Amino acid sequence: MEPGSRGEILIVDDDQAFRAFVSALLTRRGFKVWEARSVRDGEQILHASKPRLLIVDYRIPDMDGVTWIGKLRDEGNTVPIAFVSGSWCDHKTFNWLRNILKVSLVLQKPVDPEIFVESIDSILPMSQYRPPERANVEVIDHVSIIDREIENILREYPQSDVVAAELAKLGNLETQPESVLFGKLTNLRNMLEVEDSLRVARASYLNELASTWAHLTTVLRLLKEDPLNRGAVEEIMSATHKVKGTAGSFQLTTIGKCAARLENIIQAHDPHASDTESEIIWSEVFRVLADGELAIIEAQEQFAGDLFDTVEQRARLLAVADAESAEQLGAYRNCADLSIATSHSSALTSLSRGNFDAVIVAEPFASAPDLLSFCRDLRLASAISAVPLLMVSDQLSTVASDTLTPDKISYAGFSEVFPLNPDPEALALVVAEMVDYSLRSKPRVLIVDDDKALTDFVSRVLYLHGFSVETLNEPIRIIETLSRFDPEVVVLDVIMPGLSGYDVCREIRKHERWRDLPVLFSTAKSNQEGRVLAFRAGGDDLISKPVLKEELIARVTSYSERTRLRGNSIDSDQLTKLLSRNGFTIEAEKRMSECTDIEIPFTLAFVSVDAFDEVHQAFGMIAAESVLASLGSLIRGRFEPSVVKGRWAERVFALAFTDLTIEQAEQLVRLLDQEFSDLEFDAEDGASFRVSLSVGFACAPLQGQKFTDVREAAAENLLSQMREKSPL
Amino acid sequence: MIITEDRTVLLVEDDDHIRLIVKISLSKLTKWKIIEARDGFQCLEVAAKIVPDLILMDVMMPGMDGVTTFSSLKKNENLKNIPVIFMTAKVQQEEIDDYIKLGACGVITKPIDPMTLPQSIAAIFAAKTVVDG
Asked: How far is CA B29 from the centre of its chain?
């Protein structure tokens, strides 16, 4: 039978399982069923539609059913009503309902589906409804209604552990009476509602808990400064006791346990303990505080979506595509936020305004003849110095393969070429790599502390605030970690077994390279004595323990900015915006050691402008400068992001390739030479001229294990090529 | 089972969050009517007016704590027969025994499990019925 062909029925009941049950039964018998969970919703539906029958529950959240029916009758509404109640009506109520309120039917839950349907059929006016032949009535399949409700629940709560556990307990559906099964499912619905409500309540509790925990940290600091502070002890005891009960009840077990542990420690707190004893106790307090803070952050991450949209870090991609191929980029939306630009100019504008992790070039732009120059413009427009490029094209093999060789694609800057409908896993991997690359441009902080609980906490906090963090639990390995990670700020614990924080700082300061690297001591001794010791050891500032999140972030941010400002002036070249010789050396040395570690080739190239002095003399200083600037911007716009680029000397540029042999690198640099040699420069006198390049290569490990060896070999090769071209 | 009966429960708890958790649990999983009080004074005031079927009370509260409120209830002819269940985050068995000796109907320890709270309360009543005959 057509749904709705027999008219509309409104059910008002806050019990969702019962509504679903009624709806399933009556829809199949040709009714359109409106569901309302409160009188308010019910009245709205009554205003908007003309149901033939109301089914009203006794218990409704905002008004009881009897009162509401009375109100409807007072207003002159004569619609037939079926009254449903969870408990038996006494004789008086029954009479009241039937005779005064003109209720057509009084039913008790749980209802038998067959009786229910027959009763409903019986009270609806015959003129509008001709009962079908008995044979046409769909046989009510008891199990299928239960099945349907189970299906509904599974669909609505696909990942709930409660659903899984309770459904597992249901037992054999065939052998149990329907009313019993329905009772169980109703109970499950109720439990799920508890879960839903708790989730929202928990998200708001977590926000409060974060500030409670920060306050607890502050009061613990007070107690540490003054062990006789009774007020602090009482405040801590009461706060931890409360968190223990409340966090635990929200199923935030770890946080509850941390609070309980703190309560116990402070309860046993002896203001006259010896220095050694209190040092042990306080280090335990710091550790528990850090554990709790971490658990709060993790819970906030886990439950944040319950209060507002998750603030998940997703890659931001800009796709340059026409409408047709934009539509086919669906797979990319699954692993990243995708913006579309449909023309060269809109791509360049978006890129200069927005902070994109990578750019996808799709058809028709990918096989357009001006691809090379467009890529260069993209690179120069982007805020990231060498924005990763990704090509998406199905036409490569046919149309463009003659002109667009793999070398050319790599030279143009593309890290990867994907077909239109890529393998999702491979795609996700590449996108992750791209984001990882943009992570490299985040400020780097090194945390040194022997206590892993503390480094975990501090690194998590800093990571969430946009820092790239590395932790070191063995201070003895400080120098090798600094060389590898090259942090902009170091946070150093003072008290560690073996080397103290002061020792580590003195060790760092022995090296020229890290003489100005900001070192922040995290210490429980933030008094005058602590300061003097820290500054004497060469530290820049102190962070008091227990660590306050806000203070940590503020300090680390301001010191990392200081390093960056200074670094920029030393490490980058004014004219070409490439790395300076110093910056290039640091970066290239790092890459070379990475390559050596995993045994892949590393190639260094020095590129020099031929006959630069002659150009200078013949065409003037401005023309000579513009030659260097053009070569700089050409280099900046080309090659994959992994290629390190720098200006080595006035007329010499440097390129470092990871995972490329000399032969492979030669192919790429040849393309640079070709493109550059095609450029025409204008002299001051109006004449135009061209310039060629000389290149010297060297490779690790072939030419040596040390960067200096490779560097000297490459310089030697460059000189011999220059001598070949213009013998003295 | 008592969960399905209409009853009035007076919930006495100073912590907003715990009150919310208990309320969510009882209002969704039982048919009980829940009335809230934030401290001992409010508890006595409300109890005198509505005479609840059950009082669920936190032990540690500012102002008048649970135990003091409990003895005030016991001194009042109209209120002394209302069963009282204590909620506490202290878990020493001696403490629980102390409350029972005082005349409490039972003790529920925090953290509470909102999914099984009604059953825990029902279990306390069932045990009580067996003991009292």
From this structure: 17
Share of chain A above pLDDT 70, in %: 89
Give the span between the Cα atoms of A597 and B75, in whole angstroms.
81
Q: What angle do CA A120, A124, A125 make, to 5 degrees?
A: 160
B28, B60, B112: residue with CB nearest A249: B112
Q: How far is A85 from chain B (nearest CA, A)?
A: 13
Within 8 A by CB and 6+ apart from B9, the residues are: B26, B32, B33, B34, B35, B52, B53, B54, B55, B56
Largest CA distance in chain B: 37
Q: Provide the 8-state DSSP code for B90.
A: -
Interface of A with B (CB under 8 A): 59, 86, 162, 187, 190-191, 193-195, 197-198, 201, 205, 208, 241-242, 244-251, 253, 256
Tens-place pLDDT, residues A376-427: 888 888 766 678 888 888 765 544 555 677 888 888 888 888 877 777 777 7
CA distance B46 to chain A (A): 22
* Residues whose CB is less than 8 angstroms from the CB of residue A280 and which lie 6 or more positions away in sequence, other chains included: none
Percent of chain A at pLDDT > 90 equals: 16
Residue B109's closest chain A neighbor by CA? A245
Q: Please tell me the distance from the alpha carbon of residue A9 to that of residue A430, in angstroms, as a whole number.
A: 55
- Tell me how far apart the alpha carbons of residues B126 and B109 are, in angstroms, rounded to a whole number: 18
* Cα angle, residue A149 at apex, residues A145 and A155 outer, rounded to 5°: 140
pLDDT of residue A526: 67
**Chain A CB within 8 Å of residue B111 CB:** yes
For residue A59, give the chain B residue with the closest CA.
Answer: B31
Whole-angstrom CA distances from A689 to A621, A629, A631, A676 are 14, 15, 15, 12
Measured N-to-C along each axis, helices A662-678 and A621-637 cross at an angle, to the nearest 10 degrees, of 130
Closest residue in A to B118 (Cα) is A191
Q: Which two tokens stand for residue A621?
A: 């200083």
DSSP-derived pairing of the beta strands A681-682 and A652-658: unpaired
So what's the ipTM on this one?
0.79
Over 90: is that where the pLDDT of A490 sits?
A: yes
Backbone angles phi, psi at A38, to 5 degrees: -150, 165
pLDDT of residue A709: 92
Distances (CA, A) of A456 to A293, A295, A452, A462, A521: 10, 11, 6, 10, 17
Q: pTM (2 decimals)?
A: 0.46
Please indicate whether, in this complex, the C-beta atoms of B17 and A250 are within 8 angstroms of each other. Answer: yes
